[in-house]
Amino acid sequence: MNPLLSRLQPYPFERLKQLFAGVTPAANYSPISLGMGEPRHPTPAFIQDALRQNMGGLASYPATAGEPRLREAFAGWLARRYGVVVDAASQVLPVNGSREALFAFAQTVLDPTRPEPTVVCPNPFYQIYEGAAFLAGGQPYYAPSDPARNFAVDWEQVPEAVWARTQLLFVCSPGNPTGAVMPLEEWRKLFELSDRYGFAIASDECYSEIYFRDEAPLGSLQAAVALGRTDFKGLVAFTSLSKRSNVPGLRSGFVAGDAALLKAFLLYRTYHGSAMGPVVQAASIAAWGDESHVEENRRLYREKFAIVTPLVASVMKVALPDAGFYLWAEVPASMGLDDAAFARALYAQYNVTVLPGSYLARASDGHNPGAGRVRMALVADTAECEEAARRIQQFVRHHSA
């Protein structure tokens, strides 16, 4: 067996399953899950129609690079959303969801023969970053986050010796779990570091279309162009239809950026067998070409967060995020519970599932930055999320009395 597999840690939801083992939740409450970030708004009918109307594509092997019309759909969306111009032939590639692509990209760019190949990732973070680093023969470095800035990463705290051996940097903006969006000046700093030390930047932007204020989140390619980096040197952006279009089961997204990196990534993907099926390509073209369903999806989230956030904020320290569909709430010290105990007791007494924040982070300098917080995924309909928030109110008030 591959010895690197032994370095993988249990996934957060496996840990949650173990945490709840032996617990029978109160039968007088229906189950409500705020634990997993799985979009649950209805899939738009026109996307389903595009799938049904293109079933003939099942009879053909797909090209790993995707059909030209698909790549043009990616380029067209980037132009409309960010004002960014890319070459559809060399600067975009289809992927089977951003999770698959983030993992595969690390396998493409890391050179395990170099001393201490390092992958820098935020902390808290999406666990695929860590697993991708381990299985590519690298070592993750967990960049410290700053609670005073909504857990944005403090890049200044990463030692120069770490940057010097870094081969890949994972960035998540809007962030998971906090929803923080990186401003232009932080992108300037990261691009300068990439130029100086020669590492690639993988920018995970799967939450970019769910935001709560008038200004849409800044994208990495958009930042690069604003800073004169029109060749996107060292940068690849990752995005997906899962959250934007409520199609997590479609497994469809794309990457865009540095043509040289994408050429190598295409080679890896060709051997890996990562081609997107023709039926999914057809549905994806339809989805990327329409914004009305995205605007409606965003309206639903805005309505939901406007109702739920004040309810939770009445008993826990939490604020409306910049973007994304999570609330990152602090467990009140008066309850005398850590984040795991909070999640277990809430499940037992009110049948509501939340994810302990410590499961989304790693201890750094003796401190786990997710400890004492829980992540709530507001992915169900508004009524169900409101009911969950009211149960959380009761739970906190009861234990803080």
Automatic annotation (TrEMBL):
Does the keyword section mention Magnesium? no
**UniProt xrefs under InterPro entries:** Aminotransferase_I/II_large, DapC_beta/gammaproteobac, LL-DAP_aminotransferase, PyrdxlP-dep_Trfase, PyrdxlP-dep_Trfase_major, PyrdxlP-dep_Trfase_small
Note the superkingdom of the native organism: Bacteria
Pfam families attached to this UniProt entry: Aminotran_1_2 (PF00155)
Question: What range(s) does the Aminotransferase class I/classII large domain occupy?
Answer: 32-392
Keyword entries, A-Z: Aminotransferase, Transferase
Q: What cofactor does this one take?
A: pyridoxal 5'-phosphate
The cross-references to NCBIfam families, in alphabetical order and at most eight, read: DapC_gpp
Q: Which SUPFAM superfamilies is this protein grouped with?
A: PLP-dependent transferases
Protein name, UniProt field: Succinyldiaminopimelate transaminase
Q: Which PANTHER family match?
A: AMINO ACID AMINOTRANSFERASE, L-GLUTAMINE--4-(METHYLSULFANYL)-2-OXOBUTANOATE AMINOTRANSFERASE
